[in-house]
Amino acid sequence: MQTKYLTRFFALLLAILTFAACDRSKEEPSTDPRDVFVGDYSFVSTGSIDLYAGALKRTVPMSEKGNLSIALGKEANTVWVIAAGDSTLAYVSDNQLLMEPTEDEATFGDLVMEMSFTYGKATLKDNQLSWTSDVDITASYKDHLFLGSGKVDIVATKK
Fold first, then answer.
1. Quick one: which of 41, 95, 98 has its CA closest to 73?
2. CA 100 to CA 154: how far, in whole Å?
3. 14 CB neighbour count, 10 Å cutoff
4. Judging by beta carbons within 10 Å of its beta carbon (0-12, 13-18, 19+), is residue 41 exposed, middle or buried?
5. Using alpha carbons only, what angle is made at residue 154 by residues 89 and 40, rounded to the nearest 5 degrees?
6. What are the residues facing 141 on neighbouring strands?
7. Residue 134's closest CA among 149, 113, 114, 146?
8. Backbone phi, psi, residue 94, to 5°
């Protein structure tokens, strides 16, 4: 009698394992929409900032080449954009990154600069991420005040 119950038990166990195995094979692996952004990039920036000291205007080119990387954030739809030791939090929406504005302050002797960056939507297309940044600068040097603003276009290519 015990053999009869053991046979049924093992038959039932085998059926459950078979169904469980089938269910797992039908599950599609979860895809994280952030994964397409994660990685190392090389970038080229072009643009300029107009600096004013009273009525005097000086245009400063903002053309640069460099590297950046994008890493997963803690939240489900966030990533970190990391360049030159600075990081910016960004939110993933389809094929775009929405980056939070950032502020930075730098002091070089008597020169104190406050910079703020507002980023346009960064769109990913064929391993290229491109966006425009609005830059505002307030700088003081001894008794002089300088104000500036401009636009910088960035194109980053995934390595």
1. 98
2. 16
3. 10
4. buried
5. 60
6. 111, 144
7. 149
8. 55, -120
| Torsion of the alpha carbons at 113, 119, 124 and 125, rounded to the nearest 10 | -90
Helices (H), the chain: 2-26
What's the rounded Cα separation, in Å, for the pair 119 and 131? 7
102/145 Cα distance (integer angstroms): 22
Q: Please compute the mean of the pLDDT values over residues 124-139 and round it to a whole number.
A: 95
| Arithmetic mean of pLDDT, 36-50 | 95
| pLDDT tens, residue by residue, 57-70 | 989 898 999 999 99
Record the pTM. 0.76
Please check whether residue 96 is in contact with residue 124, taking contact to mean a CB–CB distance below 8 angstroms: yes
Q: Which residue has the tokens 């039932």?
A: 12
The Cα 106–Cα 96 span in angstroms is: 30
Instruction: Return the structure tokens found at 88.
Output: 């910016």
Distance CA 46, CA 62 (A): 6
Residue appearing with tokens 């636009």: 151
Q: Characterize the bridge pairing of strands 56-61 and 64-72.
A: unpaired
Overall average pLDDT of the 9-36 stretch: 61
CB 129 within 8 A of CB 41: yes
**Beta carbons of 71 and 79 less than 8 angstroms apart:** yes
